[in-house]
């Protein structure tokens, strides 16, 4: 195979994650030749900055994929479902950030720290990027699983509003503006709900300001929301443990960017705290911040805008054998979406230069 720099397309380049993708591409190794920006027809002609140059957006059409080697998609599920096969049929390897193909048995679900070999197993020409909640803990759990064998996982997530798209932060900002300066709110039942804008216009089922909402994603019946089922199903597929016992409770919190997770992980055999910490510290994309006596542990305010997975509050569960508890934070727009997509695409790019 002749050595050349492949052509990359970014589909959904004007969206919340798409704009983060362009920023990430500008700081990543220069493995790409042309970078083509694709979005809806209404965005065609718009200039976006990538790698220090202004690049014009082109409309999403079949012909837009001609000559494209790899296409990173960040668009709604229904758009990916329609257009990812089109891009693949024109010869592009699609790396899709939507939920359209994640559980398709013929589409690998990839986290480069956990299962990079799966990139080559793509009979449909499509590789899926996991949900941002699952991704936020995968680098840490993957490192521990390789050594100790994960058997059970209980997770409580504290999810940023940007996980709901650009409407999430705008809604939270509107609510904060509505209640700013009122120091009596939160003292009487329902007073926050009466003060913030009508929840009917919100992407969330309850106010976010001065509140937490135990509902993330769409309701799927039997008490479960879609984000919780994604954590279960995607963790099993990424780690290659089809019978992994998983239970998740996903909560939306008034944080703009960065998901946090309280993780309760049980392993096949004994795991010491010192050894587990050493495994996490050795993982190249994991940062351990773990000195609770001195107030050192990760929070969204520390993590936002950065690429690693941050882990703290690491401890052995007192009443559960072979079990660790930990607190994990990851920027949901970077490693939780755009960065992991870019890292998968770079694995594919190596096929054109090896």
From TrEMBL:
Keywords: Amino-acid biosynthesis, Diaminopimelate biosynthesis, Lysine biosynthesis, Methionine biosynthesis, NADP, Oxidoreductase, Threonine biosynthesis. GO terms for molecular function: aspartate-semialdehyde dehydrogenase activity; NAD binding; NADP binding; protein dimerization activity. Its EC number is 1.2.1.11. GO terms for biological process: 'de novo' L-methionine biosynthetic process; diaminopimelate biosynthetic process; isoleucine biosynthetic process; lysine biosynthetic process via diaminopimelate; threonine biosynthetic process. Phosphate binds at residue 102. InterPro entries: Asp_semialdehyde_DH, Asp_semialdehyde_DH_beta, NAD(P)-bd_dom_sf, Semialdehyde_DH_NAD-bd, Semialdhyde_DH_dimer_dom. The active site is at 132 (acyl-thioester intermediate), 259 (proton acceptor). Coiled coil: none annotated. Substrate binds at residues 159, 252. Residues 7-122 form the Semialdehyde dehydrogenase NAD-binding domain. It comes from the Bacteria. It holds the Pfam family Semialdhyde_dhC. It catalyses: L-aspartate 4-semialdehyde + phosphate + NADP(+) = 4-phospho-L-aspartate + NADPH + H(+). Pathway: Amino-acid biosynthesis; L-lysine biosynthesis via DAP pathway; (S)-tetrahydrodipicolinate from L-aspartate: step 2/4; Amino-acid biosynthesis; L-threonine biosynthesis; L-threonine from L-aspartate: step 2/5; Amino-acid biosynthesis; L-methionine biosynthesis via de novo pathway; L-homoserine from L-aspartate: step 2/3. NADP(+) binds at residues 14-17, 42-43, 162-163, 332. It is an enzyme of class 1 (oxidoreductase). HAMAP family: ASADH (MF_02121). Belongs to the aspartate-semialdehyde dehydrogenase family. Homodimer. Catalyzes the NADPH-dependent formation of L-aspartate-semialdehyde (L-ASA) by the reductive dephosphorylation of L-aspartyl-4-phosphate. This is Aspartate-semialdehyde dehydrogenase.
């Amino acid at each position: 195979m002749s050595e050349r720099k492949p052509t990359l397309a970014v589909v959904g380049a004007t969206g919340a994650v798409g704009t983060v993708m362009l920023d990430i591409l500008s700081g990543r190794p220069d493995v790409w030749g042309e970078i083509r920006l694709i979005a809806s027809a209404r965005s065609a002609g718009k200039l976006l900055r990538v790698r220090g140059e202004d690049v014009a957006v082109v409309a999403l059409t079949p012909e837009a994929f001609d000559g494209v080697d790899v296409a990173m998609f960040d668009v709604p599920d229904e758009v990916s479902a329609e257009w990812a096969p089109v891009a693949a049929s024109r010869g592009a390897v699609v790396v899709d950030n939507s939920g359209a193909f994640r559980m398709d048995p013929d589409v690998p679900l990839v986290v480069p720290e956990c299962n990079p070999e799966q990139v080559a197993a793509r009979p449909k020409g499509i590789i899926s990027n996991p949900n941002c909640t699952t991704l936020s803990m995968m680098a840490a759990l993957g490192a521990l699983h390789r050594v100790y064998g994960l058997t059970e996982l209980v997770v409580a997530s504290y999810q940023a509003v940007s996980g709901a798209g650009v409407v999430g932060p705008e809604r939270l900002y509107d609510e904060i503006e509505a209640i700013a300066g009122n120091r009596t709110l939160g003292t009487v039942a329902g007073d926050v709900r009466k003060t913030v804008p009508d929840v009917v216009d919100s992407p969330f089922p309850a106010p976010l300001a001065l509140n937490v909402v135990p509902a993330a994603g769409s309701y799927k019946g039997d008490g479960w929301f879609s984000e919780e089922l994604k954590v279960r199903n995607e963790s099993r597929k990424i780690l290659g443990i089809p019978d992994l016992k998983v239970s998740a409770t996903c909560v939306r919190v008034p944080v703009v960017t960065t998901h946090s997770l309280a993780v309760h992980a049980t392993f096949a055999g004994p795991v010491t705290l010192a050894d587990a910490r050493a495994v996490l510290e050795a993982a190249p994309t994991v940062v351990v911040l773990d000195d609770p006596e001195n107030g050192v542990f990760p929070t969204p305010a520390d993590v936002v805008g950065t690429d690693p997975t941050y882990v703290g509050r690491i401890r052995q569960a007192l009443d559960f054998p072979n079990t660790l508890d930990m607190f994990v934070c990851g920027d949901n727009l970077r490693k939780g979406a755009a960065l992991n997509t870019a890292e998968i695409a770079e694995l594919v790019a190596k096929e054109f230069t090896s």
